[in-house]
Structure formats: C-alpha cells, structure tokens
Amino acid sequence: MESIFQTIHFNPMDFLFQCINILVIIFVLNKFLFKRVGKVIDARKKEIEDNMAGVDSAWQEVKDKEATYTGLMTQAKQKYQTIIDTASKEGEALKQHLQDQAKEEAASMLSQAKKDIQIEKRQALDSIQDEVATLVANGTRAILKKEIDPEMQKDLVNDFVKETGEVNG
Fold this sequence. Notes:
Blueprint: H1 2-7, H2 12-145, H3 150-168
Helix pairs in contact: 2-3
C-alpha cells in the first residue's frame, strides 16, 4: 500500500495536517463567519416572513374591503330600486288621482252645463209661452174690438204672422 501512496505522493502526516487545517478553518469560519452570516440570513428570512405575513394580511384586508364594497353596492342598488319602485308607484297613484279628479271635474262641469241648459231651455220656453200668451191676448183684444169678416180675419192672421215672425226672427 505504501507503493500506492508513493505513486500518488501521499504523505499521511501532510494529510493529517491538512485535515487539522481544514478543521481549524471550518472552526474559525464557523465562529466568525457562518454564525454572522447565519444571523444575517435568519434576520433576512424573518424580515421576508414578516413581509409575507404583511402581504397576506393586506391581501385579506383587500378581500374584506372588496366584500364590504360589494355588499354596500348591493345595498345601494336595492335601495335605488326601492326608491325607483316607490317613485313609480307614487307617480302612478298621482296620475290615477289626477285622472279621477279630472273625470270628476268634467262630470261636474257636464252636469252643471246640462242643468244650465235645462234652466235656459225652461226660461226660453217660459219666455215663448209668455210671448205667445201676450200675442194671443193682443190678437183676442183686436178681434174683440172689431167685427170679424173674412177680409178682416185674413188681415188679422197676416198681422199675427208678421208679429210672430218679428218676435222669433
């Protein structure tokens, strides 16, 4: 085996010193470098975890606000629809009320107009009756004052027709 060690130029003492050197270097690096680097890495890892937790909480807050916003929008839409429906119903009720009121007023005016027409018709008939009575009385007086012969009767009728035509025309 020694021949193998000589061919590859292996010296066990050198190997031992090199192992000790490596262990010393590892110890020194571990003591001064790896612990500090580990602390920096741990601090950075904690900072990243904290940031991720912050991102998660911010994301959850965004989702909560979105849900709240969606709820508020739904409520606003429902309230808007309720207001529109109420306004439509009130508008229809007002329209119906105004139509009913207009119909009542029209019926009242029509009824009053019919009454006025009846009154004027009655007054016109009364006036015509009074005039006819006056004409008949005048005609009767004229007849009673004169003796009647056919020629005179014809004149009386013509006079009566003329008077009646003047009164009506």
